[in-house]
């Protein structure tokens, strides 16, 4: 949601923000939302389901802007309301806990007061690229000064716009330090809690593998290539050749691009005819991640979660220098990417052939990186998160 629309919504809902701040709260009412209030996915979803199943005394409620999501959650048998419906407003004003995975003003009603409702930030992944105030070029320039001034004015006029997180999840102590560096100004003291991410509990129930070798390509979204064509056209992508080689190797490859990425029609037509390369439209990749024998990615933090499964990752950082020059990275890329590096589609094909024909040589490196990133390698993350929330 744009900042101008946010300001208008802050003004329109200002009376509700006052009620949100001063009305007494019910500690057994917990709100959940995710990804701009439009989707039913990510860490929020898995904690929401866990609480509903294991804590009947807690009234766990999903809020959404989407009618489709409303129907989906209700079909699962859980309580759900549209954010700005009468019922949505009532439960928002009484909730003691609000659980999100991106931003408070996106995932849940914008008027929630962070001074009376405890905001629990589950976040949506271990950062590889720099975030928040750590981003390259995020200080010492006139635009940033102007944005900071606007932010101060907004916080003074609309105190409900503050985040003031009571809990901010991390997957390890090292990751927690990075998140604190990026977003510590939005957190209460000692807000970082190392619990692991709720969505990773799902991986342990989805360790399904097919007879053929199955992989998935999961590239990061790029502002400079919203159509995604450069990733294919500029790096030697040839659907017919890949498809032919995959048949020899008994490999099928799925692809999942960012929802805002729309490939050129010629590439889509080539893929439609390949037979063993296809696009998937999962709204929740974690329901499916465990069925893949390997993944291909560039800078997506999803590979940090996939390390828990101890399966091969092929890294395809076609435009590494350009990507690093944008935000910058927290880590030395080559130090934390335990897998074959491929800088074009022909090299991706070679890497897949190596995995199929010669096996995987990165098991020890994966273990080292996984130990740094994921303190817990079990299916008990949700339980740890609820324990931390209940201590509030």
The low-pLDDT segments are none
Calculate Rg over CA atoms.
Answer: 22 Å
CATH architecture of the largest domain: 3-Layer(aba) Sandwich
- Average pLDDT, rounded to a whole number, is 88
With strands numbered from the N-terminus, the spatial order across the biggest sheet is: 3-2-1-4-5-6-7
Number of strand segments: 12
Strand residue percentage: 5-15%
The N- and C-terminal alpha carbons lie at a distance of 30 Å
Order of helices and strands: HHEHEHEHEHEHEHEEHHEHEEHEHHHH
The oligomeric state of the chains shown is single chain
**CATH third-tier fold name of the largest domain:** Rossmann fold
The computed structural class is alpha/beta
Helix content: 25-40%
Total domain modules = 2
Structure in words:
With 392 residues, the chain is of the alpha/beta class. It folds into two domains: 3-196 and 378-390, CDP-glycerol glycerophosphotransferase, N-terminal domain (Rossmann fold), CATH 3.40.50.11820; 203-373, Rossmann fold. It is 39% helix and 14% strand. The chain contains 16 helices and twelve strands. It has helices at residues 3-12, 14-22, 42-54, 67-75, 86-94, 104-107, 142-157, 173-183, 229-233, 239-249, 265-272, 302-306, 320-326, 345-358, 363-373, 381-390, and strands at residues 26-32, 59-64, 79-82, 95-100, 118-121, 167-170, 192-194, 213-218, 251-255, 277-279, 294-297, 313-315. The strands form two sheets. The chain has a seven-stranded parallel beta sheet with strand order 3-2-1-4-5-6-7, sandwiched between helices. The longest helix has 16 residues, at 142-157. The chain is globular, with a radius of gyration of 22 Å. The relative contact order is 0.13. The model has no long low-confidence stretch (mean pLDDT 88).
């Amino acid at each position: 949601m744009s900042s101008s629309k946010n300001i208008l919504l802050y003004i329109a809902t200002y009376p509700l923000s006052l009620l949100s701040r001063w009305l007494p709260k019910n500690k057994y009412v917990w709100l959940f939302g995710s990804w701009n209030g439009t989707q039913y996915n990510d860490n929020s979803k898995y904690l929401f389901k866990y609480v509903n199943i294991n804590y009947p005394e807690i009234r766990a409620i999903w809020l959404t802007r989407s009618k489709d999501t409303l129907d989906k959650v209700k079909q699962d048998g859980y309580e759900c309301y549209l954010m700005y419906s009468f019922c949505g407003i009532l439960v928002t004003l009484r909730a003691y806990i609000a659980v999100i995975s991106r931003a408070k003003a996106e995932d849940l009603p914008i008027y929630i007061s962070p001074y009376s409702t405890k905001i629990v930030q589950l976040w949506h992944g271990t950062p590889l690229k720099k975030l928040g105030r750590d981003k390259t070029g995020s200080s010492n320039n006139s635009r940033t000064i102007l944005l900071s001034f606007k932010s101060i004015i907004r916080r003074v006029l609309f105190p409900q716009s503050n985040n003031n997180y009571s809990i901010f999840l991390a997957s390890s102590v090292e990751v927690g330090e990075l998140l604190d560096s990026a977003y510590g100004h939005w957190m209460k003291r000692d807000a970082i809690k190392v619990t692991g991410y709720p969505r990773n509990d799902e991986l342990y129930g989805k360790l399904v593998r097919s007879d053929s070798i199955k992989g998935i390509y999961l590239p990061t979204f790029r502002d400079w290539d919203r159509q995604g064509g450069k990733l294919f056209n500029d790096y030697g992508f040839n659907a017919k050749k890949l498809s032919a080689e995959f048949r020899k190797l008994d490999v099928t490859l799925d692809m999942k691009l960012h929802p805002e990425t729309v490939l050129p029609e010629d590439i889509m037509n080539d893929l439609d005819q390949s037979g063993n390369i296809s696009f998937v439209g999962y709204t929740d990749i974690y329901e499916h991640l465990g069925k893949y024998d390997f993944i291909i990615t560039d800078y997506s933090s999803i590979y940090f979660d996939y390390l828990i499964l101890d399966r091969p990752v092929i890294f395809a950082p076609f435009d590494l220098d350009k990507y690093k020059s944008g935000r910058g990275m927290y880590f030395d890329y080559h130090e934390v990417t335990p897998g074959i590096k491929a800088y074009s589609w022909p090299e991706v094909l070679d890497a897949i052939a190596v995995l199929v024909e010669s096996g995987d040589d990165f098991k020890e490196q994966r273990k080292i990186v996984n130990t740094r990133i994921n303190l817990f390698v079990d299916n008990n993350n949700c339980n740890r998160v609820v324990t931390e929330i209940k201590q509030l």
